[in-house]
Every structure is written in C-alpha cells, then in structure tokens.
Structure of M14 family metallocarboxypeptidase:
Amino acid sequence: MTTSHAAPAPYPVGTPGQPWAAPERAAWLARQPLRRSYQDEVLAPLLAGVPGEAELFSYGELDYTRLGLGTYPLMAVRSRDWRDDLPTVLVTGGVHGYETSGVQGALQWIRQEFARHVGLVNLLVLPCISPWGYETINRWNPDALDPNRQFRADSPAGEAALAMACVAAHAPRVDLHVDLHETTDTDNSEFGPAKAARDGNTFVPHPIPDGFYLVGDTPRPEPEFQGALIKAVREVTHIAEPDADGCLIGSPMKQPGVIHYNKRPLGLCGGLTDARFVTTTEVYPDSPRATPAQCNEAQMVTVSAAMAWLLAQGA
C-alpha cells in the first residue's frame, strides 16, 4: 500500500468552502495544457488499419469550440459480421482520459486479439471515450465534469451521452462489459483536491492501492467471474492488497482484489448496460513494480479472460 499524499492547501482555483461558478471553471480550464496528441496516439493507429474482421466507424463528434477548444471525432470498432446468435461483448476505455492503459490497452487488444475472437462473440470497442481528457491527462472533461459520473439520461457530458447512444444503436443487447480504468497517485495529488474545491468541500486523501484490482457491480456481483479475472491478471502483474481496514479506496474488499460499487445510481460507465457480466479494471501505473507494458497487458488479459469466462458459460 502506498503512502497517501497530502492534499494541496488550498487548491489553486476558487475559494475554500465555496463551490465553483463559471469564473472558477474557466480559471481551471485555463490551467489545462495539451500534453499529448489524440490524433497521433489514438486516431492514427486506428486509421492505419484495424483487423479485416473489424469495422472502424465514427459514433459522433465532441465540439468544444464554445470553450475556445477544438472538435474531437469519436471512433469505435465493431465486428464486421454481426450475428444475432452470438453473445455480445462491449469494451470501453478512456472514460477517464488520463488513465493511459485504459486507452492503449484497448488499442493493443484490437490489434492483437480482436481477430482471434471473431466468430465467437460480437464485439464493440470504444477505446477512447474522453479524447480531451486523454490529451490533457485529465479526469474531467473541459466543463469540469467527470464523465464517469454522467452515464445517465439527459447526460450533461457529451462523452457519456455519445457513448450511450453508440451502444444503444450498435449493441442493444450486451452480455459482457469490461470498462478499462486506472487508479493513480494523481487521484490524491490533483484530481481529488480539484473535485473537493469544485464542490466546496474539504479534501480527505485515501491510500492508493499498489496493484491491480476490479470493481464489480453490487446488483450483479458474479464473484466467480471476478475471481477468474484476478487469477488471470496475477500472471502479468501484482494484485492490490487491502488497507488496515480491509478496504480498497475506502470500499470493503469482497474477495482478493475485488470491491463493489452500485454503478448505475452513481452514473458509472459500468452501469451502462444490462449485461450479466460486468467489471471495471483498476490498474496502478505508478507502482515501482509495474511497467507501462505490464499495465497494457493487464488490461488485455482481463478482456480476453472475461470473454473466455463468458463462452465457458455457454452464452
């Protein structure tokens, strides 16, 4: 378990104890420089070619010109031969754009594993739901909203709204959903303090788990499924241990490396579908015991192991 970071005091934007209004949100946005390229690191690999069994398509565009920013085409990959008699698998990455292996792991899975699963399942992959967040290495979108709390009707976050519309149009029935995430040290050093400042609250840091873990859905726990994924990931990276209270990020550990959230009421991407099997990965890229390659591999192994589990159930 890593040591908690002390919260910055005060956060550079806003007045402590007072929720942000439009001027504070604008001040926050002005502090967010571009740090990498969505075009070069996400779009270019996709446009260079996906497996022949896959179809690359645009499911919309994020337009942030009203904020002095640009527009972002949103891309997805689906099975070219979609069959109603096969189970359907949804993979989502980059809901939080700063969580690098969620995006790069999804792209790597498309390149290396997509073709191997053709004819076994229908596949829909949204590899980078929050491209501005990817470019600025940010948890929020430019409106200072967390897209992973906005998967709900009439969502104010275009990232979530367009992803929901894409899934509804292309995969109305989903049997398995794997949502790819990371937990990072910046959750304590930047993003937690920013959220507290935005909402007029006091930030309370929490221990960051050192290692991989999963977040199951409280109404759909499927403990054997979650346990099988943890077993598979142990082969490529270490699994997070609980803190002194038996928790990971403040939630009780249900089995080694697994906690639960009630995803739909929280507006989480993992609550997007009615899939029987649903899990959210949490990779720890800041660990001295893990490399970027291992983080990407952990994401890939989870997706493939989840599909193997689904198929073993005779879905």
User: Anything to note?
Assistant: The chain has one domain: 36-312. The mean pLDDT is 95. The chain has nine helices and ten strands.
